[in-house]
Design goal:
- The structure holds two protein chains of two kinds.
- By secondary structure, chain A is mainly beta.
- Chain A contains no helices and eleven strands.
- In chain A, strands 2, 4, 5, 6, 9, 10 and 11 form a seven-stranded mixed β-sheet that branches. In chain A, strands 1-3-8-7 form a four-stranded antiparallel β-sheet, with no helix packed on it.
- In chain A, a hairpin with a 3-residue loop joins strand 4 and strand 5.
- Chain B is mainly beta.
- In chain B, 0% of the residues lie in helices and 52% in strands.
- Chain B starts with a strand and ends with a strand.
- In chain B, strands 2, 4, 5, 9, 10 and 11 form a six-stranded mixed β-sheet that branches.
- Classes of the chains: A mainly beta, B mainly beta.
């Protein structure tokens, strides 16, 4: 158990509405990540954070923003949701020896 | 262009036999490789990893082999159990692992272990 909690776990929203997904960790990890998983694509990195207020883009960052105002919380925001953002979103942290990524349980987002 | 490829979408094996899942990569800069298992409606679970300075790493029933010259790695599960039925993802990174978290994933192989 990597001590990661994602919320909400399931959400249905309408096109054009803003959506925020929250990732909360309890073990003071420095690095946190947001990935999305789609059929035929495996998992792809959206954004990551290497400390409070320190974030950077991943492979598929367009249409997403993130914020990290405290160590334990990493927020992913879709400013104006589109149907192409229907996906499963996984938060992750670097743990263990510092070389391994551990994932949360996922947030299922449907944009209609 | 896929940097990490899992060319077999599915694999079916008999309980007790060996399962071999394969992964190929194209980026010679990758220096750390990981395998994850994923059940439906759950997050990926870390299984085992290997750095590019090794060619084998073993953990219980799971062994990962790395062939750098062929840019190929494989995951062996011996003996296979019905509870191993899941989707297995291969992932690779540069700069020895997770500090940057930019893992490149394959598309996954669905393993079915039949009793």
């Amino acid at each position: 158990d990597a001590g990661i909690t994602q919320s909400p776990r399931h959400k249905v929203t309408e096109t054009g509405t803003p959506v925020t997904l929250r990732c909360h960790q309890t073990e003071n990890h420095r690095y946190m990540y947001w990935y999305r998983q789609d059929p035929g694509h495996g998992l792809r990195l959206i954004h990551y954070s290497y400390g409070v207020k320190d974030t950077d883009k991943g492979e598929v960052s367009d249409g997403y923003s993130v914020s990290r105002s405290k160590t334990e919380d990493f927020l992913l925001t879709l400013e104006s949701a589109t149907s192409s953002q229907t996906s499963v979103y996984f938060c992750a942290i670097t743990g263990g020896s510092g070389n391994t990524i551990y994932f949360g349980e996922g947030s299922w987002l449907t944009v209609v | 262009d896929q940097q990490v490829k899992q060319n077999s979408p599915s694999l079916s094996v008999q309980e007790g036999r060996i399962s071999i899942l394969n992964c190929d990569y194209t980026n010679s800069m990758f220096d750390y490789f990981l395998w994850y298992k994923k059940y439906p409606a759950e997050g990926p679970t870390f299984l085992i990893s290997i750095s590019s300075i090794k060619d084998k790493n073993e953990d219980g029933r799971f062994t990962v082999f790395l062939n750098k010259s062929a840019k190929h790695l494989s995951l062996h599960i011996v003996p296979s159990q019905p509870g191993d039925s899941a989707v297995y993802f291969c992932a690779a990174s540069v700069n020895y692992g997770g500090s940057q978290g930019n893992l490149i994933f394959g598309k996954g192989t669905k393993l079915s272990v039949k009793p």
